[in-house]
Write a structure and sequence with these properties.
Two copies of one chain form a homodimer.
Chain A lengths: L6 E2 L10 E7 L1 H4 L7 H11 L3 E8 L3 H13 L4 E5 L10 H8 L4 E3 L1 H17 L6 H11 L1 E3 L3 E3 L7 E4 L8 E5 L3 H12 L2 H7 L6 E7 L4 H13 L7 E8 L2 E8 L4 H14 L4 E3 L5 H8 L5 E5 L5 H8 L7 E6 L3 H8 L3 H7 L4 H14 L4 E7 L15 E7 L4 E4 L7 H20 L1
Parallel strand pairs in A: 2-3, 2-4, 4-9, 14-15, 14-16
Antiparallel strand pairs in A: 1-11, 5-6, 7-8, 8-9, 10-12, 10-13, 11-12, 16-17, 17-18
Helix pairs in contact in A: 3-4, 5-6, 11-16
């Protein structure tokens, strides 16, 4: 928490609260060789189900570390433990065994599962050049088909089955064992949600509802002040969980609430809309890229990018179906490209320099013309680390957005941060200028 | 671990091993509102110092959760706990207090620190429009200047001091308390490394050395087989920790070793070089973007991107100083742009379609010409989800790389995955074709 961050929490009524923990096993994650995608994804899923996530623990593929992690989660009163990873066929994939021991259950060969995995592995071996002997295959196969007695086995998406493992008593945590690869974990999570053994625990939670607002141009500190004033003006925040977060130059406001607090949640949304009508651009969680995509329908967009060098084009094209309105762009990194591909007058470049309002305007006009576009965006700036001067410091970026009908929006902020920050923020600012122009 | 992943571990000699844990506090991280940058970064730093990271634990800003996390880490024999976050001025920033209690130390006002923070906050308030009363300022100030007795206070980078807090005995873990914002945490980590109290613990670890190899085009399973064969051929892996990781279409091989195993580590590098000379492109950890940047020196590059829509340009321009060789690019998203900005013959578009070897070649030739370049890359493909056919499926991407001197590399793989995968992988494949062409 830095100055300006604010989190308001709902009253700590404990009815309907299910506490969960996520246990990520993977030396690759721990050593930061790969980034954990599963923890954040599962966190969102649990939150949508109204379940309180108490902690995420990342441990190496060592049985001792995994076991002590499970014991720790039990000791802090966690009801549901979700493990990810460690389900493969190799010797250090030990999650199933460790969880079985933790839950006081023996492992037993599941013949049906064995046959299922055998079929999958045979297909896998045939489709690759892996030199796997049949013995090695069968051994790996058998290891993965060992299921704790009394557990529910979830059919493999890759080669490993998942598990739902109950404890010895109602008070013990239920353990959901999922594979590590996200492409296997996600579908298996959906399957697990249908299993009565898991359902029984999840259904004890009261579901949280939520909405997300997005703002551009309001400092987080100002938003925090608005929230304090709205509360002072008499709106009760009881039963609301309000999180504000500064992310890549935008402010996100997440509001979570149980049904009883729906009225306050709606009133809060209205109060924020009223106070920040200029900067609050998304009431339904849509990103600026999605909003702009909607506004571009039936239009034809051309871009002229210098310092952002394709980052705006890449964001525009990231939206499926963007080829309907995106004609193209020029990454005019050199002066010659500005001149030859966008028709910027050499005299303008000589007189005002490549980073100037005049050249930004000429680039936008050139993009309108060359792409036969009816709306164009030009970005030219100094990304650094070199190239800055007193008059034109690193971070100075000139924007020019214009339509064929004569609409113009220009801006020239000095964007703080390093080279990558300046370039990424340039694409963001341009996206918002485009939104304002078309809205 | 999935089939094909392999991790080989050094012998578990316990001398010189210092065990560390990272405790991340932050409801925003736990709820996946923001991504934790600190855990992975600290993991790398610790690894470079030869310290074994046992776990990363993420908890909410609740004192109870933080306290039980600290106790858990102590219980698993961790020597050094690094906490991040929870050092701000607001009421739920409680890390310092909780750590003091954990270490059996009282909190005491540090007058000198108070004056230092006062000066920082006054500057901060003056530079923003924050309506902070002097009382509120002083209170926040005093809270942050409370230091556990016997701890080392680290000067604030933002507004919060860091701490190094010893336990009651040598056997207790040392706790390094760092702020949450990465821009504050990183410099403070460097400062902390100079403090004798921390140094004393770190110096007990034997430093690990490491190298990283990067490969493009070798399946991870094939690499795993090479490793097994190299070991079978008589090279001892004792004292080596080998991690292979598939990241964004490339394979990374990390080898960590203590001094005694340097010979084996070097022999392993040679053996891999010999076996995978075609695909092993980086022996010194440099990324393909860095390698290509070096190869482009003295050249002039022009790009023609369709489906990747600026992603290759953005990668090229991400390297500081790229303006020396990067002339620019055309994002020719529409057929008109291919024709009007790159000079692609309409007849080619009509006869072969926009996604064809012929059009890719014409785009590259056009880019050479229009940018006055001596090397050009063209990418045109079907990113999906729509637009595919039996003959030209989603994921089919045509590449054409050529030099003014007449060198050509062309390829037309079908790239698996979703729209974003296809687009990002396109930029990666193009980067490698460019590397092969210039090498």
């Amino acid at each position: 928490m830095t100055l300006g961050d604010e989190i308001f929490r709902p009253g700590s009524s404990s009815d309907g609260e299910i506490r969960a923990g996520i246990l990520v096993t993977g030396t690759e994650v721990l050593t930061a060789t790969i980034r954990d995608e599963n923890g954040p994804w599962l966190s969102q899923q649990l939150s949508d189900l109204g379940i309180e996530l108490v902690e995420i623990l990342v441990v190496a593929d060592h049985p001792g570390d995994l076991a002590s992690g499970l014991e720790h989660m039990k000791s802090v009163g966690i009801d549901l433990i979700v493990t990810t990873g460690g389900l493969g066929p190799t010797a250090d994939d030990l999650t199933a065994e460790v969880v079985a021991a933790f839950s006081g259950r023996k492992m037993e060969l599941d013949r049906e599962m064995e046959a299922r995995i055998q079929a999958i592995l045979a297909r896998f071996a045939a489709s690759t050049n892996l030199d796997l002997s049949t013995d090695a295959l069968n051994e790996a196969n058998r290891k993965q088909a060992m299921i704790p007695v009394g557990a529910v086995a979830l059919n493999p998406v890759g080669t490993a089955p998942g598990l739902i493992v109950p404890g010895q008593s109602e008070a013990d945590p239920l353990v959901l064992v999922l594979p590590g690869p996200p492409r296997e974990l996600k579908p298996m999570w959906e399957t697990a949600l249908k299993e009565p053994m898991l359902r029984q625990v999840l259904d004890r939670a009261t579901r949280l509802r939520k909405y997300r607002l997005r703002m551009f141009g309001t400092p987080e500190s100002e938003l925090a002040m608005s929230l304090r004033e709205i509360e002072k003006d008499g709106l009760s925040f009881d039963g609301l969980e309000i999180t504000t977060c500064l992310r890549k130059g935008e402010v996100e406001v997440d509001v979570r609430y149980r049904d009883a607090a729906e009225g306050s949640a709606e009133q809060l949304k209205e109060a924020l809309k009223e106070r920040h009508s200029r900067t609050l651009y998304s009431l339904d969680g849509r990103t600026v890229d999605e909003v702009v995509s909607g506004l571009l329908e039936g239009r034809r967009l051309g871009l002229a990018e210098s310092c952002s060098a394709g980052l705006l084009a890449a964001r525009i094209a990231d939206v499926p179906g963007s080829s309907d309105y995106f004609a193209g762009g020029v990454v005019s990194y050199s002066n010659e490209a500005k001149r030859d591909l966008l028709g910027v007058d050499q005299a303008l470049l000589d007189e005002f320099g490549a980073v100037s309002a005049e050249v930004a305007e000429a680039m936008a006009t050139g993009a309108l013309d060359r792409f036969g576009a009816d709306v164009a965006v030009a970005i030219t700036g100094i990304a650094g680390p070199g190239g800055g001067s007193e008059e034109k410091p690193v971070g100075l970026v000139h924007f020019n957005v214009r339509t064929a009908e004569g609409g113009v929006r220009a801006a020239a902020p000095v964007i703080p941060g390093g080279r990558r920050d300046v370039r990424e923020r340039s694409a963001l600012v341009a996206m918002h200028l485009l939104r304002e122009m078309l809205a």
